[in-house]
Amino acid sequence: MGQESFIYSFVARGTMILAEYTEFTGNFPSIAAQCLQKLPSSSNSKFTYNCDHHTFNFLVEDGYAYCVVAKDSLSKQISIAFLERVKADFKKRYGGGKASTAIAKSLNKEFGPVMKEHMNYIVDHAEEIEKLIKVKAQVSEVKSIMLENIDKAIDRGENLTVLTDKTENLRSQAQEYKKQGTQVRRKLWYQNMKIKLVVLGILLLLVLIIWISVCHGFNCTD
Amino acid sequence: MFGLRKSPANLPKHNSVDLKSSKPNPFDSDDESDNKHTLNPSKRTTSEPSLADMTNPFGGERVQKGDSSSSKQSLFSNSKYQYKNNFRDSGGIENQSVQELEGYAVYKAEETTKSVQGCLKVAEDIRSDATRTLVMLHDQGEQITRTHHKAVEIDHDLSRGEKLLGSLGGMFSKTWKPKKTRPINGPVVTRDDSPTRRVNHLEKREKLGLNSAPRGQSRTREPLPESADAYQRVEMEKAKQDDGLSDLSDILGELKNMAVDMGSEIEKQNKGLDHLHDDVDELNFRVQQSNQRGRRLLGK
Predict the structure, then answer these.
(1) Claim to verify: residue B250 and residue B220 sit in the same structural domain
(2) What residue in A sits closest to B274 (Cα-Cα)?
(3) What's the pLDDT tens digit per position in B135-184?
(4) Is the pLDDT of residue B38 over 80?
(5) In its keyword annotation, does this UniProt entry include Protein transport (chain B)?
(6) What does the pLDDT read at residue B112?
């Protein structure tokens, strides 16, 4: 089948292209090579460059760069899916050490047709792959939201711990307050009682004084 | 759809079926005379069931050597073992006949369907857990609000206590005024009650038993007849996988909404807790002051 979405693909070690494949002619290999020179080789990541209605997609991992040039009508996810497949296949075939010693374009004959097969497969199954990518994206979205939620829940847990300490402190203060309130009430009750008794004593004394003054003593028969 | 995970690149060229041959569909071929499709039995290992002995192990046809179900069963389990083993014991994928590869394709398709169904079940379990978590979070949010209301009640009671403590000084002592750094406002009422409504809705669904019903089984597909060829069976499995994936996508959409609701609920609670912290600090400060006043009164 003549797929025309993928234009060119290569696998490189550092900046040395080990295998490449294309069915077209054009200046894209040189542009891709220029992009490869500028790639930060240390990091494991994905890069996409746009140029003249084409996307240059790179996947860098463990010192190897996997590239595909595609028409910009093809979604980025499909290109990345292709690169992931190529990476897995390349590692499976040459992971034993052959890739680390291979010279420039020495794997063209072996790995070129494999890249072609992968291109055809990806284009043939684009719809299905997109479905899977969509589900994967949903999973990662839910995962990232839940990771944020976990962070928030941890903060909430810490908040609750601090609040527990504060309320515990408040409880002990409130108990102290209650105890003191009881003591104050008791003290004031005694004070009140004392005052009442003193007033009663004074009243009795007054009555007694009046009695004595009226009756000229305790004998009041007259 | 996902029956064969490996691309055609992994199958060597000599094993590919010539599409220009007289047969329009290579999967329909039961005729093993063509050397393009089969290999000589001498190349086979002993563990592999010989195709000469049976017509189609997957089409439900009888094994010719004997009608005993045990021999049929052993052949089938043997094939299953080989599939799980990726034909390692019988010369690898390259050395298999078209018929065996058809069987392998069906097996792989069924395995993939099973894994999709497994994912769906896991997603449904997660959804029910998420529903419970959301309900629990909502309940905890209400508890925090109730606690905050209690703090307001404590504030009212404390104000009355402070008034009484202020009036207990005696005639000649200077009046005691409690210090208030800030007023206690109580819980912050937010207008957005969507999580509450959502939780109520989810609770209703849970009570009605709607959440527990697996959606993957909702679509009923007519089972294929025994005579159906491998291609049809793979296509049917693909359709099942598509259904499973769309169900999974729907559940993931729900899970995302639930996760967002959880996030907003936790955030709301965190804000509420911050306010509650401040109010509890204020109450602590004022109770401490009241205690000092009480001690002074007791000391007189």
Answers:
(1) yes
(2) A159
(3) 989 899 988 998 988 899 898 888 878 878 887 766 556 667 676 676 77
(4) no
(5) yes
(6) 92
- Residue B3 within a domain: no
Q: Is residue B157 part of a domain?
A: yes
8 Å CB contact of A159 and B270 = yes
Whether B191 and B64 share a structural domain: no
Instruction: Please state the domain count of chain B.
Output: 2
- Does B273 sit within 8 Å of A128, measured CB to CB? no
- The answer to whether the Cβ–Cβ distance between B294 and A117 falls below 8 Å is no
Q: Which residues pair with A65 in a beta bridge?
A: A12, A60
Judge if B61 and B142 occupy the same domain.
no
- A28 pLDDT higher than 50: yes
Decide if A173 and B249 are in contact by the 8 Å CB cutoff: no
Same domain for B136 and B252, yes or no, is yes
Do B99 and B221 fall into the same domain? no
Q: Are residues B144 and B25 in the same domain?
A: no
Q: What is the residue range of B194's domain?
A: 106-299
Cβ–Cβ of B298/A135 closer than 8 Å?
A: no
Consecutive H or E run containing A16:
strand A16-22
Arch. (CATH architecture) of A6-124: 2-Layer Sandwich (3.30)
Instruction: Specify the pLDDT at position B182.
Output: 67
Q: Do A176 and B291 touch (CB under 8 A)?
A: yes
Nearest to B255 among A118, A142, A163 (CB): A142
A169 vs B contacts (CB less than 8 Å):
284
- Alpha carbon of A184: minimum distance to chain B alpha carbons (Å): 6
Q: Which residues of A lie inside 8 Å of B (Cβ-Cβ)?
A: 85, 89, 113-114, 117-118, 120-121, 125, 128, 131-132, 134-135, 138-139, 141-142, 145-146, 148-149, 152-153, 155-156, 159-160, 162-163, 166-167, 169-170, 173-174, 176-177, 180-181, 183-184, 187-188
Q: pLDDT category, B26, cuts 50, 70, 90?
A: very low
